[in-house]
Amino acid sequence: MQMINITLVMVLLGLLLGFVGAGGSGFIISILTVVFGYPIHLALGTALAAMFFSSLSGSVSHYREGNMILKTGIIVGLAGAAGAWISSGWSSFIPESWLGLMTSVMLFASGIALWLRMLLARTGPNGSEDMTLALANGLRYWSYAILIGLVTGILSGLFGIGSTPFIQLGLMLLLGMPMRYAAGTTMLVIIPTALAGGAGYFKIGYLDVYLLIAVVIGTMSGSYVGAKFTKRVPVAWLKTCMVITPMIGAAILLLNV
After folding, report:
1. Distance between CA atoms of residues 128 and 108, nearest Å
2. In the prediction, which pLDDT does 165 show?
3. Is the dihedral of CA 141, 52, 164, 224 positive or negative?
4. How far apart are CA 197 and CA 46, in angstroms?
5. How confident is the model at residue 66 (pLDDT cuts 50, 70, 90)?
């Protein structure tokens, strides 16, 4: 009965996440800990592993639309996987109350980073794919790519978040990638990062497969329906919801600290 309730709640949550186009790991962590009473370490591992499935479908879509720079995504993703694998083991040494507070702070930071990403989308790089690919041939470029992957992977593994706005900001600011390609490439980056981080949590005993199945079924079902409402509201409302969604998740998580 518990898993059925979780699935139903995740369907409702998926409606919101599909509407705003967010991965929602922070909200998943908050609901699992505050509403259903799961330990935060288990919630982190479950949320991170769940992102593998949502990112996989999104990545295929972006690739077909030509919104992805494959080589860069692979390099950043592999570096992210290494960072997530390493840092997922670190979380077991952090007390639950501290980890909850730290994760909440990271979710607030995600909201701010998302706002910065939107600002850059209007005023930032608008170059072509050819221009971006032309940059991808130097030591500096690939050093930055690996750095972006390692840093965001460590954040993902430690706090169970997708680090989507942080990855996109890194791709745009450090690699000069236009927003269109940053969005698609980020989906590819998250796949190995989420897989490695989830495997790391499973290895140390902080991943419940049945809980993961309930979360994935609920969120993906709800997201499919919620996405259909995205174009039916004013853009300003949608952007506001995108920014405050991780912050609401952070506020809920603080109730359990």
Report:
1. 32
2. 82
3. positive
4. 10
5. confident
Contact indicator for 189, 23 with CB cutoff of 8 Å: no
What's the count of helices (H) and strands (E) in the chain, helices before strands?
11, 0
Measured CA distances, 115 to 47, 108, 124 (Å): 23, 11, 13
Percent helix, percent strand, percent coil in the chain, to nearest 5: 85, 0, 15
Q: For position 131, what pLDDT does the model report?
A: 46
Task: Select from 160, 142, 151, 148 the least CA-distant residue to 96.
Answer: 160
| Contact by Cβ (8 Å): 164, 52 | no
Q: How far apart are CA 164 and CA 159, in angstroms?
A: 13
Q: Per residue in 36-65, pLDDT tens? A: 999 988 999 998 898 888 777 778 777 887
Does residue 107 carry a pLDDT above 90? no
Whether residue 33 contacts residue 99, with contact meaning beta carbons closer than 8 Å, is answered with no
How many residues comprise the chain?
257
* Nearest CA-CA partner of 221 in 45, 77, 16: 16
**Look-up of token digits 């853009």:** 235
Distance CA 210, CA 128 (A): 44
**8 A C-beta contact, residue 190 and residue 56:** no
What's the pTM?
Answer: 0.81
pLDDT at 6 over 60: yes
Q: Tell me if 223 sits within 8 A of 17, measured CB to CB.
A: yes
Distance CA 228, CA 166 (A): 26
CA distance 72 to 15: 31
Residues 49, 165: contact at Cβ < 8 Å? no
Whether 215 and 6 have beta carbons less than 8 Å apart is answered as yes
